[in-house]
Amino acid sequence: MAGKQCSSADDFVKICREKSQTISTILVRQAQLDVTKLTLEKLFSQINSIPDLQKQHHFQALHKDVIQFAEYATSDNQYVYRF
Predict the structure, then answer these.
(1) Distance between CA 60 and CA 23 in Å, rounded?
(2) Is residue 23 within a helix (H) or strand (E), and if so which, with residue range?
């Protein structure tokens, strides 16, 4: 970006677009971030969590909204979870 003045996010995107056609640069406004954040928070607040998820390494979809999971594929203890 040598020789260009960059004093805002708008300037940064403009300069990037001038300097490179192989890299796609977009500007995301705060309002867009806020709307997306609210949408995701609403979505995630309605999701049921799988018990001890961080300990599980094997998952298999059985049906829509039904999975089987276990610590490992060869584990004796396998669990079925319905969302």
Answers:
(1) 37
(2) none
Are the C-beta atoms of residues 81 and 70 closer than 8 Å to each other? no
What pLDDT digit, counting tens, does each position of 54-63 carry? 899 999 999 9
Per DSSP, which regions of 9-65 are E strands?
58-63
Task: For 14-58, write each residue's pLDDT tens digit.
Answer: 999 998 999 999 999 999 999 999 999 999 998 888 888 889 999
Q: Tell me the C-alpha distance between 81 and 83, whole Å.
A: 7
The full set of domain ranges for the chain reads 8-47, 50-83
- CA 59/CA 57 separation, integer angstroms: 7
- Decide: residue 30, CB within 10 A, 0-12 exposed, 13-18 middle, 19+ buried: exposed
